[in-house]
């Protein structure tokens, strides 16, 4: 991390970070979208005017404001305006509907709710009214505006809870995760430190800004003073023109994004799909080692993958100058200040980037151990070199005839099979064995027929123990995924195939 970036990372609040960066490089761009651009100075100045407009509406320090907005320059302005006021903001993923949105509004006790109006065929304003939301206002092209002279002083400390993020709710009701300005700055600093970026880079946001990755990534832009291209709707190959137009040097998001870029690269082997690109980076979902090797080999760029969660936006990250072996098989190393402890195989965390807990005090008590470490539910170990290796989830261990089987181990092996595009391994109820191993495979275009016998033969050849071999194979057109970082929704697969017997 440069001296300037390190100095900025000590900012007490997100607004202080914005103001300090604006003083340093007011005319440099921070956000790019289509023909529009926003500089660091404009981010500060326009956000203050939006804050004044919100203040005129009745928003005060500590007021809870929920927002469900797409990845747009206006969304960033509204979010930083709320940070300027010291309001408590609750971002909601724009793809969520009545069940998740209603839950977030009720649990957060939101006093205001910003929506985009009708967006991608869905009337968010009507949904908000149907749910009985308070203080509904649309914030898409037009934002509240006012005279900054009416504003109170900005918040002076960053340790109060001012953010309520929501877990994805892929297995149960979402949890309201409590963050502070300082925990978000710490998470973004970890990402910035690991990726070794510079003011000459151009990043990209192809994920929902309402995701925890939104502030994580924006903090990195503020620390290093470089811009990112925002994608309101991301799809390949349509988005490639914007990557090329702005000369994006760093792209990514998650494993699913890497695979999407690879698919585009394979249309014209040897011709860089994005000529300026030098690094793919992301996290949020496991990365099979073979994906790393394919990206480096076929795209000619480096790939660094990390480990984060809503509760801790950035835990570890691979560094571009790390060894190929570590980049392929580990999640990278933690930054200074992130403590990792492995207890009975479970990864536990303590540090400034860790959330303050959950809205529900009972969930908070259950999540932290007696030493203040967050129980992640992830299984893994730390290498002698300090790199973290994840081996699966506590809830993703298949118990077959009393033997523990890691779904991730089988997935990593199958990811290298030429007839496999993506794969999810799940445990299904079985009267005789307790659970049986089922591999659900999404094949790449043009792939031949895949049989259970071919899969088990391949895994045997890779040295997988016989008791871990899949006993059921399901081939699907597409694995079910969430709309944020495209994580596979295994609970849906378990529901779909639990009644099947092969």
Automatic annotation (TrEMBL):
The keyword Ligase applies. Belongs to the ATP-dependent AMP-binding enzyme family. PROSITE patterns: AMP_BINDING. Residues 19-359 form the AMP-dependent synthetase/ligase domain. It comes from the Bacteria. Residues 409-483 form the AMP-binding enzyme C-terminal domain. InterPro entries: AMP-bd_C, AMP-bd_C_sf, AMP-binding_CS, AMP-dep_synth/lig_dom, ANL_N_sf. The lineage of its organism: Bacteria, Bacillati, Actinomycetota, Actinomycetes, Kitasatosporales. Pfam families: AMP-binding, AMP-binding_C. This is Class I adenylate-forming enzyme family protein. SUPFAM superfamilies: Acetyl-CoA synthetase-like. The keyword Ligase applies.
